[in-house]
Automatic annotation (TrEMBL):
Species this chain originates from: Timema genevievae (Walking stick)
Superkingdom of source: Eukaryota
Lineage of origin: Eukaryota, Metazoa, Ecdysozoa, Arthropoda, Hexapoda
SMART domains in UniProt: STAT_int (SM00964)
Biological processes, Gene Ontology terms: cell surface receptor signaling pathway; regulation of transcription by RNA polymerase II
Protein known as: SH2 domain-containing protein
Amino acid sequence: MVIIALLQRAKAKYAWISGHPQTTAGVGGLKPPPPTSGYATASCSESEGNSMSLWTKAQQLQGDALKKVRAVYGEHFPIEVRHFMAAWIEENIMDIDPENPHNEQFVANLVGSLIQELESKANSMMNTDDLFLARLRLIETANNFKSRYSHNPLSLFRIIRHCLKTEMKLVQEVDNVCVNKGIVGPGLGLLPDSNAEIAQQLDFLSRHTQETGGDLRKMEQEQEAFALQYHECTKLNVKCSISDVTTSTAHLQHVQTLPQNQQNLEVETKLRRQKEMFEQMLNQKVSGLMQLRLTLVDKLKDTITHLNTLQSRVLDDELIRWKREQQLQGNGAQFPSNLDNIQECESLAEIIWLNRQQIKEADRLKLKLALDPPGVADMLPSLNSQITQLLSSLVTSTFIIEKQPPQVMKTNTRFTSTVRLLVGGKLNVHMTPPQVKVTIISENQANALLKNDKMAKGDASGEILNNTGTMEYHQATRQLSVSFRNMQLKKIKRAEKKGTESVMDEKFSLLFQSQFSVGGGELVFQVWTLSLPVVVIVHGNQEPHAWATVTWDNAFAEPGRIPFAVPDKVAWQEVANALNMKFKAATGRSLTDDNLRFLGEKAFRAIMGFVRKKQAEEMLSKCANGTFLLRFSDSELGGVTIAWVG
């Protein structure tokens, strides 16, 4: 019932004949769009060497690996662009770090060049039947890129990098399987294990932080030594100035007024030497202290750059991939949750916190002894702002829904959900146990929340019973989480419907809100996260249509979308993948080619469009006896012509 409802939804609103051969439509007995391949188990083949492009290797993947490659592409970055622009993309985009601020303008220029290359590629294509739709697709994509990413080229660049990294990871996984089976080729070793690489970078940052901690202690010791020597200087009645480190003595001035005899000259010489010695010594100390401060600032800047890059990888790659796989689980995809592995990022929180403390300590020492080199700006306030922003981003992004609420939710029915803070243990958030509140909000309210980063007080679209809980820290697993076991949607407030809109098309979301205190109240973070889209029903007969809405959203949601925007048209190949995933989860087997043909015919109604009489005759001449075609007459208004092979 869900599959039929999904197909009806596609026919009514979403179906798009992208790459759909003309010979499949309108002719009884001919095949609908070819089914997607890749349902078999993965196999290994010997690598063809390092010269093989990543895209060539990705196309040779099979089974689930190939499906994962296809799933990462969509309206945000169509697979056709990846195919026709493969060489240009891999040559220009693979090695650029978008998180490096120095690359910002370069990335913007690169995205502009991509759009130009895309247009050039489309214009160079011949208007043949097999390239016509691809050409239109490239032109449409170039226009979409201009309108969607012209003000934010970095977003598109990150999306492309994410797609490439996914391909690299999948290719490497298959290569590793081949190695284990004794098949080794020169193309292996494309991508190191992600978890091992992240652990290696965390170890590097931990050691780097220990080094800066040592530098900070050395600077404090040198500063204390300077203060002692300065104090000794004053005890000898030598007036010392820290700013220019000049000295003079009242005694020396007095001796210079005395008669110039041998004894007085010797005393004056001795005092001058003493003055020069103190002046040289204090100058050296000041110079050394200034150099220590400049070196420490450079090291802290370097650490923050590395932290930013690693955090971006954890949040923008690993965590977003986990969330996408969690969403596809709603359609029946296998979901080997690696959330415990991702939680290792809490070491990142600890390193960020230590560096923030080091910056604050450096600022305290600076205020204690003002030694500002001329012409050098004080970087510590800026570094403090950057490191605090990193911590804020990490805390707010790792407040996640470990167990999603049901996506088709019936009123007055009990449901459960679990939320978790991945970095709670290392930051001792549990010392002030956070309260979590759950409300249900509409699609429009979710959009407003993203724009304003806060909800109006009492602004909700329904009433949920048992909607508050306290997060608890579990020592054995190092997890800070709360499970809501007895929530129930008591009532729902819907928006006004227009035209043929149905309540089963309306999407809501559960909003989880909390407040985290870090460092004994030094920092307080207001956090929230949204569940996957939820469709609310009041009767069982609404369930198939509701699941069709949810299935479409799960299958075709794009990364970083506005809640809960979803493409209103996708290629049949993508719909077939989604249907197959849903069917396999329910029955344990994949849809056959015949199954997909049948479903394709229901989705496309076997309607081709405009066809001339001569073209119809040519199409039928190649078909078996019994094949027929219905065509509106060219000569008689409203007339229908039936042609067949006999």
